[in-house]
Amino acid sequence: MNISAVLFLAVFFRYVLTSPIVWAEEITGFLLVWMVLLSAPVGYRTREHVAIDFLPQKMPPKFQPILRLIHALVVLTVAAITVAYGVPHTVKSMNQIFPILEWIRYGYLYVALPIGYFLVGLYCLEDILQAVKTLTGKKA
Q1: Burial (CB count <10 Å: 0-12, 13-18, 19+), residue 110
Q2: What residue ranges do the domains of the chain occupy?
Q3: Can you state the angle between helices 64-92 and 112-135, rounded to 10 degrees?
C-alpha cells in the first residue's frame, strides 16, 4: 500500500463515511520517512539531488575530480556519523510503541535512517574510488 492510497482512504472514510481511520496519519508518516530515506541514496548516485553546481562548472576540468573527492569525503563523514548515532538510537527505540499502532515499534521507523545513510556511504566510496582513479591517471 502506498501513501496516496492511505491518504485517499483516510479522507474518504473521514468525510464521506464520517468514520475516520485512526491509524492513517501514523502509517502515512511511517511510509513517508521510509520513502525519503531510501530514495536519498538513489538521488545521490544518479546526481538528481539538490545541488549547487556553480563552482564545479567554473573550475578547470583538472580540478573537478578534486572537488568531487572532497564532496564525497564530506558526505561520507556525515553518513558515517549518522549511521554511528542512528544504530544505537534505533536499538533504544525498539522499546517504544506507536500509540495507535501497538504492533509497530518506533525502531522500525528509525532503522530507515542508518540503512539509508549506509547506502549513501557506499555510493560515496564509489565516488571516492572513481575520483582517485581519475587523479592517478587510471581509467574510471
Answers
A1: buried
A2: 26-135
A3: 160
Residue 139: its pLDDT value, please?
A: 62
Average pLDDT value for residue range 64-83: 91
Report whether 8 contacts 14 (CB < 8 A): no
Average pLDDT over residues 38-56: 81
Percent composition of the chain: helix, strand, coil (DSSP 3-state, to 5): 75, 0, 25
Q: Answer for the pair 114, 86: CB distance below 8 angstroms, yes or no.
A: yes
Please, what's the b/e burial string for 27-44 (b: 16 or more CB within 10 A of its CB; e: otherwise)?
A: bbebbeebeebeebbeeb
How would residue 86 be classed by pLDDT, with cut points 50, 70 and 90?
Answer: very high
In this prediction, residues 3-27 reach a mean pLDDT of 87
Long-range contacts (CB closer than 8 Å, 24 or more residues apart) made by 55-58: none
Burial of 79 (0-12, 13-18, 19+ CB in 10 A): buried
